[in-house]
Amino acid sequence: MGQRMIRRQVDEGLELYAEKNYDAAIKKWTISLQKMKDNRLRFSTLGYLAAASRDRGRNKDYLVYAVQQIDIAHEIDDNNLRAQAYLTLSRANEMLADYFKAVSYSRSALQYSAPTESVQGYALLVMADSYIGLCNFNKVLECLDKALCISHEHEDHLMEIHVLSTMGKVFLALKDFPKALAFQRRAHEISLSNAAYAVEENANVSSKFVRLTKLKLATPLRLMGDFDGATKCVEEAMKAASSIGDRPVQAKCLVCIGDIQRSQNNNEVACKKYEAAIPMLQDMNDRYSYTLAMIGLVKALLESDTQKQTATEILATALSTATSMGNKLMQARCHLLNERILSSDNRLEEARQVKEAAERLYQEADLLCPICQKAMGMQSDHIQILTCTHIFHQRCIKDLLQKWTHQAQACPKCNKNVLFSRSYIALACT
């Protein structure tokens, strides 16, 4: 096969992918790759295959293609390609919940890319997502602040959407549901606007962000009691995902539907949704969402006295997976569920011990409010983040918040002067 014909096959694959004929596109690229001699074309084609694998939920294939890109970048000795390859490698590891590796590869992407390149912003976003997985929220906030600046410098709306959505995820983890909803709404608004004006080559990515941001609206809506609104969001996201075979979003929609049904005490229906999602997430090696689904299933099962043993076994798997990821919040929530089980069996000493273990994990995650020394993220509350990235209960720094819009105030934790800023942190106090 001539190299000109190979290039044509790659282009045909791109056309098929734009038409949402994903499997045919992957087949074209895989065949063309076998006889491809041009290393730069090989690098690009591996990038297409990596993105396609990610979109189809084949996360281990995504990692394999990223490693092959690294080898080519080193062979050519091109720092731009190194930066792109390390970014792909970091994304693959973040999706596989190997967070320390993801952070390390993100740093390599930063090292090999120029300060003016958008790669820097996307590497920072991977680091932010990884630090959420590791429950290091101060690092999350530092990365997001830098990424937001880069998104504005490059007028990169997809990057800005990702920043806002990740901030929503931060407040969801801290159980400040109104702020989580505000960030997800803003992310969805921008994604809709961006999709309306997206050029053809970016249409798939833009539509994916619309689906994801729509889905992410459902959880804070559910937790604030708007079950109809949450159901509408997840149904629209599921319909869009099903129409193009977006398995990752489909699986997450099933988990979200399970959560909504469980919140309305429809536990039998909820269990079926979780049970449908769990093997899909396991097949995709999405350990983070897999653990969330198991935790949801445990909560639904515990509403039935006959399912306690099954719930205990699933909870042990969820705790083991959360521990292997290094996610302290998930571990703590597993311990709190275990406390509930042990207390119901009148095993009060064991219940006390697992509750103490949960409290230690919140402390290790630096989620004790510096003012009142009580945990943030254990129950619904109003949280405030200062521009130095330190986190407090909003009620604990009420006086500071009343003054900081017009006069610098000292952070109660680090004593740095903080002033109201029009960054993402400022949005957190609206």
From TrEMBL:
GO cellular component: cytoplasm; neuromuscular junction; plasma membrane
Listed Gene3D superfamilies: Tetratricopeptide repeat domain, Zinc/RING finger domain, C3HC4 (zinc finger)
GO molecular function, one term: zinc ion binding
Chain ranges of the RING-type domain: 369-415
Coiled coil stretches, renumbered: 341-368
Xref: SMART domains: RING, TPR
Pfam family, one: zf-RING_2
Keywords: Coiled coil, Metal-binding, Repeat, TPR repeat, Zinc, Zinc-finger
Gene Ontology BP annotations: positive regulation of neuromuscular synaptic transmission; synaptic transmission, cholinergic
Domain of life: Eukaryota
Family: Belongs to the RAPsyn family.
Protein name: RING-type domain-containing protein
